[in-house]
Specification:
With 245 residues, the protein is mostly helical. It has a domain of 168 residues. 69% of the residues lie in helices and 2% in strands. The protein contains 7 helices and 2 strands; from the N terminus they run αββαααααα. It has a two-stranded antiparallel ribbon. β1 and β2 form a beta hairpin. α1 packs antiparallel against α2, α2 runs antiparallel to α3 and α4 crosses α7. The longest helix has 55 residues. The radius of gyration is 28 Å and the shape is rod-shaped. The two termini are 26 Å apart. Keywords: Membrane, Transmembrane, Transmembrane helix. It is a multi-pass membrane protein. One of its GO terms (cellular component) is membrane.
Length: 245
């Protein structure tokens, strides 16, 4: 390791800046999607997509990522006295990554049997207005067929004669729900890669700080005979005065 390895423009520090930027960007994105879903109450085009729990977790994840990034930057500014904050930062990344994976898995699992899952939702949980809204969008009537809980508010489904000319909404609904769910779980799984990158950078940074701190302590002990006057950790070792012969 060179003397100036821990300058603020060193590779490990630049990687820390990049990882923080990507990490906090993922948090802002999760917060945006979470708030948007909460405002819409989990509904898209009149169809319930998410239970209230998932949007809440998205908001919590976004806020947690923002707070942990602030903690990491706070520790990075003065790593000699605040190294524990960097340790807290990369432990929080592990926790966030685990929650993100679990949330992505839950959303992905919902895509495995959309047709059967939404059979009861269409018949018992969606009102006539929301069914009509989706029928207009999907150009369909009813769920399995036009006679399966079709909303007569839709002009094309108002009579049996008209409804017989269209298909049930199971296909369009499955396609729409699958599209929304796949977008969310794909984003969550992609953000896990960012979490891994940020964690590795944080881990390497802490290990490097320990080595650099030990070098500073040894250099200080050689020069002054004690460790009372520790230098700022990010100061290159070449800045130390040369001991007198």
């Amino acid at each position: 390791m060179s003397d100036g390895f821990l300058r603020y423009n060193s590779p490990i520090c630049v990687n820390f800046y990049i990882s923080c930027l990507l990490y906090i960007s993922s948090g802002i994105t999760l917060l945006y999607f979470g708030v948007q879903t909460v405002v819409l109450k989990g509904y898209m085009n009149g169809v319930p997509i998410f239970s209230p729990v998932i949007p809440s977790f998205l908001v919590i994840l976004g806020m947690s990522i923002f707070m942990s990034t602030v903690i990491g930057i706070y520790g990075f500014v003065s790593p000699l006295t605040r190294r524990k904050f960097i340790v807290i930062y990369y432990y929080s990344i592990v926790l966030v990554a685990l929650i993100t994976f679990c949330l992505g898995f839950v959303i992905w699992f919902q895509t495995l049997d959309i047709s059967n899952n939404y059979l009861d939702i269409w018949r018992n949980k969606m009102n006539d207005l929301s069914r009509s809204e989706f029928q207009n969008m999907g150009r369909c009537c009813g769920y399995l067929d036009p006679g399966d809980y079709s909303s007569t508010l839709t002009p094309g489904c108002s009579t049996i004669a008209k409804a017989e000319m269209v298909y049930g909404c199971i296909g369009p609904l499955r396609e729409m729900v699958s599209g929304y769910l796949s977008k969310y779980y794909s984003i969550l799984f992609a953000f896990i890669l960012i979490d891994i990158y940020a964690f590795v950078v944080g881990l390497v940074l802490v290990a490097t700080l320990k080595v650099h701190e030990k070098m500073l302590q040894n250099q200080t002990k050689i020069l002054y005979g004690h460790l009372d006057n520790k230098e700022v950790l990010m100061t290159p070792l070449v800045n130390f005065p040369t001991p007198r012969q």
